[in-house]
Amino acid sequence: MNPFAQFSRPLAALLLGLAMAFSAAPASAESGEAKVSVHGMTQSQVASRFGEPERRHAPVPATGEHPKPPITRWDYADFSIFFERDIAIHRVEHLKRPE
């Protein structure tokens, strides 16, 4: 008999609830307009939405024993977008320097 059987169902429900809560909050940021989520957008969708970036960084090569997907960064004036292969995973606002 599993000594943890009495905890397995409540624990599974808790973990499922946490997973749903965090997956329901996609990466988004302010950009002078309404909040814009880029999570899951392709590079062509990002280019259509925001235009061409000021700079496209080359993909960072995968290293180590376990294969990792290449990560690419596009820089815009006020933010950067990070891609895993062709899919956006994060949008990071640049800090505003005090004048």
Topology:
Elements: H1 5-23, E1 28-29, E2 36-37, H2 43-50, E3 55-56, E4 71-75, E5 79-84, E6 87-93
Antiparallel strand pairs: 1-2, 3-4, 4-5, 5-6
Quick recap:
With 99 residues, the chain is an alpha+beta fold. The protein has helices at 5-23, 43-50; strands at 28-29, 36-37, 55-56, 71-75, 79-84, 87-93.
Overview of this structure, please?
The structure is a single chain. This protein is of the alpha+beta class and 99 residues long. Helix content is 27%, strand content 24%. It has 2 helices and 6 strands. It has helices spanning 5-23, 43-50; strands at 28-29, 36-37, 55-56, 71-75, 79-84, 87-93. The strands form 2 sheets. Strands 3-4-5-6 form a 4-stranded antiparallel sheet, with no helix packed on it. Strands 1-2 form a two-stranded antiparallel ribbon. Strand 5 (79-84) and strand 6 form a beta hairpin. The model is unreliable at 21-34 (pLDDT under 50).
Task: Find the count of extended strands (DSSP E, 2+ residues).
Answer: 6
Assembly status = single chain
Report the C-alpha radius of gyration, rounded. Answer: 19 Å
Following the backbone from N to C, one meets helices and strands in this order, namely HEEHEEEE
Number of helices: 2
Q: What is the average of the pLDDT values?
A: 77
From the spread of the alpha carbons, the general shape counts as globular
Strand count, sense and closure of the main sheet? 4 strands, antiparallel
Strands across the major sheet, in which order?
3-4-5-6
> Which parts are unreliable, with pLDDT below 50 for 5 consecutive residues or more?
21-34
> What is the terminal-to-terminal distance?
67 Å
Which percent range describes the beta-strand content?
15-25%
Q: How much helix, percentage-wise, in residues? A: 25-40%
Backbone structural class: alpha+beta
